[in-house]
Amino acid sequence: MLETFLQIIGGFAILSFFGYIIPQFVIIFSKPLDLHSRYGSGWTFVTGGSSGIGEAFAKKVAKMRFNVAILGQNEERLNRVEKEIKEYSPEFKTLAIKADLSGDPVQLTENIMKQLDGKDVSIMFFNAGINVFE
């Protein structure tokens, strides 16, 4: 009985080990994802792109040869991020869209769509959020 129990525990340990190690090998030896060859040279739309994860993502896709439209609430930070992206990717376009997501959603959507009109948006990265205080 104890021997059977230990065999079952050992089997689970081995499965857990291989369940961890095999994906690690796939990650290590797989070729990096080339978004440009997959989606073309269109635009990437990033909400929350004026700071944090959104800013980092916007800069990363700009380095991958995408035009970038960043949406944020703070105009000063938007302009800073736009300037930084243009410095190391001057051949690609950058568009900063100032918007407050806590406003009227219909008007907000219309405003954003008007600014993105005619742009081939290939990737959308939704990273914005709002805080609700009582």
Topology of helices and strands:
Elements: H1 2-29, H2 35-39, E1 43-47, H3 52-63, E2 67-72, H4 75-88, E3 94-98, H5 105-116, E4 121-125
Parallel strand pairs: 1-2, 1-4, 2-3
Describe this structure in words.
The chain is an alpha/beta fold and 134 residues long. The protein folds into two domains: 1-30; 35-125, Rossmann fold, CATH 3.40.50. It is 53% helix and 16% strand. The chain has five helices and four strands. Strands 3-2-1-4 form a four-stranded parallel beta sheet, with helices on both faces. Helix 3 packs parallel to helix 4 (75-88). The mean pLDDT is 88.
Give descriptors for this structure.
5 helices, 134 residues, alpha/beta, 2 domains, 16% strand, SDR_fam
Briefly say what this structure is.
The protein is of the alpha/beta class and 134 residues long.
